[in-house]
Design a protein that fits this description.
It is built from five helices and six strands; from the N terminus they run H-H-E-E-E-H-H-H-E-E-E. It is α+β, with helices and mostly antiparallel strands. Strand 5 and strand 6 (159-162) form a beta hairpin. The model is unreliable at 1-17 (pLDDT under 50). Bound molecules: zinc ion (2 copies). Residues 75, 79, 97, 100 line the site of one zinc ion.
């Protein structure tokens, strides 16, 4: 009978979905640290995300993984506190990262977190590589000069290249 089939379907749809696991993957220590930061910096909003990220003007995203959690969270907070809203040139990006790591070191002292020099260097290296990649001439592979936020100059090809 069609009516009863229909009604069965409705009943099936009304079955509550399985509840997602309510426990956070963060350790109690990291959760407590997060709560402290939330109350110390009420102007910013801290949200779980797919990576550690500051999205201007005031959203700080964190990855729910315990590895380097406190340090990387402070690093994004550093970007937020320094007002790193825009950057146009890749070299500026590197400067911004350097500044942010210097600020992270300060924040680590304030919040009792051990600063990891080698992690900071590794992170900066990825930016150095990225900056370098961004300034290579697509024709000859030489490192170009940055002349504006939109363009590079290749000394070998002797021409101005639009940034990608
Ligand atoms: Zn950064
Ligand atoms: Zn070239």
């Amino acid at each position: 009978m069609p009516a009863s089939i229909f009604s069965d379907n409705v009943r099936e749809q009304k079955t509550p979905p399985r509840l997602p696991d309510a426990t956070s993957p963060l350790s109690e220590k990291n959760l407590a640290f997060l709560d402290n930061l939330k109350s110390a910096y009420p102007n910013f909003s801290f949200k779980p995300g797919r990576k550690f990220l500051f999205r201007p003007p005031k959203s700080i995203f964190y990855l729910e993984s315990n590895e380097n959690f406190r340090l990387l969270l402070l690093h994004e907070l550093a970007h937020a506190l320094l007002g790193h809203f825009t950057f146009n040139r890749s070299l500026e990006r590197l400067t911004i990262e350097r500044d942010a790591w210097a600020k992270t070191r300060e924040l680590c002292e304030t919040h009792g977190v051990t600063f990891d020099e080698s992690l900071a260097e590794t992170e900066l290296d990825t930016y150095r590589d990225w900056v370098h990649q961004k300034t290579l001439c697509k024709t000859c592979g030489a490192t170009c000069l940055e002349i504006s936020s939109e363009s590079l100059f290749c000394p070998f090809c002797q021409k101005i290249i639009k940034r990608s």
